[in-house]
Amino acid sequence: MDFNVKKLASDAGVFFTRAVQFTEEKLGQAEKTELDAHLENLIARADCTKNWTEKILRQTEILLQPNPSARIEEFFYEKLDRKIPSRTTNGELLGQYMLEAAKDFGPGTPYGSTLITVGEYQKKLGGAEREFLQSSAVSFLTPLRNFLEGDWRTISKERRLLENRRLDLDVCKTRLKKAKLAEAKAAAEHELRVAQTEFDRQAEVTRLLLEGISSTHVNHLRCLREFVEAQTVYYAQCQQFMQELQKELSRFPNAFAVNPSTSGLSVGSSPISSSSGAPLGTSSPHRPTISSNALEPGTLKIEEVQPPATGTRKAKVLYDYDAADTSELSLLADELITVYTVPGMDPDWLIGERGNQKGKVPVTYLELLS
């Protein structure tokens, strides 16, 4: 018990002398031992690495999991050293809802069958997102977090020890200056030598740890490349799924048609693009509904239509289009055709000509050039 009390009193005395030295340094009343320039640069570089690693880690977590409640839940699971439960992604949940809705609407209806197709691909997108999140957490987030919770804590501990050794060294220097008797000077010089040795030893330990920041950068560079690779794979999968979905939907050309007898609304079409740019959006537009004003076999036959003397224009095809009947002209993306209109024709359609072929084409699939 006596030993513990003495040790406690000794520690309190050391803490007090350090506090006095620190205060006098701040007030300019005591000299301060400066670290060498190389060590100061290493400390500044380490602080910069720590600050930016924290910001990158925090923002990456937000990118991968925008829901703050879910992030807090994952944080507690990690602190409790428990496995984070698998969570359904938004894409998978949306796909499931679409499949369930298709059952109620009828899988044999155009809307129901389309919901099934889109729902299946939404689930695929959700599955790809899940794999991306898991891969990013292992290859990128975990190494950054390990640095902050492991290496950086060790560096911070050694830096605090170095600061204490510096304060002890400066206290010994102050005592030596104030010593007047030869015996007191001898004791102060001995304490100064011991303090200088401990300070130099701690400075070397701290320097070695700080130089390890270069290895940390190399490791984080490798992790960053793996993160980019995971993103590349994920977005490539998404693009592939969406292209496959577009092909699937193109097999149901009438799926978007609205029955005028059951709805008071007509199908709207995208604005006709001009020579200044393509239509808004990158996906294939809906097929226009054939109205009573469109060319009908009983009133005017396609082969009888003649181009006007003036008013023909060139148009670039934006998307592939499969003709629904013999009165329409099938199109291939990026090809050039000649288009024109005739009196009484539905504004959603034009007459298109390609060589000897002629037929109706939807204007939303075209970019008018001249």
UniProtKB/TrEMBL annotation:
The ranges of region (Disordered) come to: 267-307
For this entry, list what GO says about its biological process: membrane organization
Q: Name one GO cellular component term.
A: membrane
Concerning its family, UniProt says: Belongs to the endophilin family.
Species this chain originates from: Chanos chanos
Q: Does the keyword Transmembrane apply?
A: no
**The name this protein goes by in its record:** Endophilin-B2b isoform X3
User: Does Heme count among this protein's keywords?
Assistant: no
In terms of SUPFAM superfamilies, this protein maps to: BAR/IMD domain-like (SSF103657), SH3-domain (SSF50044)
Pfam families, alphabetized:
BAR, SH3_9
Report the residue ranges that make up the BAR domain in this protein. 24-258
Entry superkingdom: Eukaryota
The UniProt keyword set, sorted, is: SH3 domain
Task: Give the gene symbol.
Answer: sh3glb2b
Residue span, SH3 domain: 310-370
